[in-house]
């Protein structure tokens, strides 16, 4: 029969893309429960879902930061039976650490880490009982490799990687599968929110030299990398669908083969210095030099082509 898929954070971006792609499956193999914090924001999803809305796709309120909201939504699902849980809801945070409030930092962990943990705690026991299920987490390349000025965001993704890597072993015994999807840059509201935030936010207690590095080294490199390497939500949805439909779903999938070398660097040199110095040069010596960082990543990737990376097609 149809597989019940519950996805968090579906009002935009990757969550919306995955919801619509699964709902539009030609063989109608999925019944998608597309969830979001605020149903007032459902128009874009409903529009993209077209005539699948009400058939293979339904919309439900769910705030991953609220116990009651998560419980209510899962209780409303027939027999609480969810075959596939996709943890997608997430928020970003960039800027120098001394200029960010601890409250803002905790919000990132509340959503990206505890939000996913809350969902898994609610859904996993039923999956274990049924001895079947698939838990998917939209992590990030930054869950495997830290990036300057993304300290707290990367930490939240590292946290969920560590949590899931530990849990995956235990779940295997119950025939429950865990899969991490690690996108590089993706063109979504996430990107917009970041630039919007940066233009409005003041970063108190931050020395001018650090601010200069942030604004003239990091930001132009980041814009450049999004332009040169950015994928679409549909690319991420394709990889996710492929993982779901694989007879033996991989634990990790990098969606962008150009990021394979970045991750490989870390394992190639266990002192960690190779990664550290590569990133140092990318940030301070090449930052702002148009396209150079992007070109380096492309060149690096040729030497690592044979490493596994799920291609979008
Ligand atoms: P997005 O901002 O378009 O989507 C994130 C969604 O999560 C939004 O719809 C937002 O409303 C929702 N959300 C936030 N807090 C929530 C909460 N408490 N409860 C329920 N929903 C909540 O951005 P996106 O790029 O589609 O992000 C989706 C996921 O992909 C995130 O986990 C993000 O960390 C990850 N990711 C994004 C990129 C990128 O470059 N865009 C790269 C790697 C990983």
Task: List strands and helices in order, with pairings.
Layout: E1 3-7, H1 13-23, E2 30-36, H2 43-49, E3 57-61, H3 67-75, E4 84-87, H4 102-130, E5 133-138, H5 151-172, E6 176-182, H6 189-200, H7 208-229, H8 233-245, E7 252-254, H9 260-268, H10 273-285, H11 292-302
Parallel strand pairs: 1-2, 1-4, 2-3, 4-5, 5-6, 6-7
Helix pairs in contact: 1-2, 1-8, 3-4, 4-5
The protein binds nicotinamide-adenine-dinucleotide.
Q: What report would you give on this structure?
A:
By secondary structure, the chain is α/β, with parallel strands linked by helices. The protein has helices at 13-23, 43-49, 67-75, 102-130, 151-172, 189-200, 208-229, 233-245, 260-268, 273-285, 292-302, and strands at 3-7, 30-36, 57-61, 84-87, 133-138, 176-182, 252-254. The protein has a seven-stranded parallel β-sheet, sandwiched between helices. Strand 1, helix 1 (13-23) and strand 2 form a beta-alpha-beta unit. Helix 1 (13-23) runs parallel beside helix 2, helix 3 packs parallel to helix 4 and helix 4 (102-130) packs parallel to helix 5 (151-172). It binds nicotinamide-adenine-dinucleotide. The site of nicotinamide-adenine-dinucleotide has 27 residues, from helix 1, helix 4 and helix 6. Nicotinamide-adenine-dinucleotide is lined by residues 8-9, 11-15, 36-37, 63-65, 88-91, 111, 115, 138, 140, 183, 185-186, 188-191.
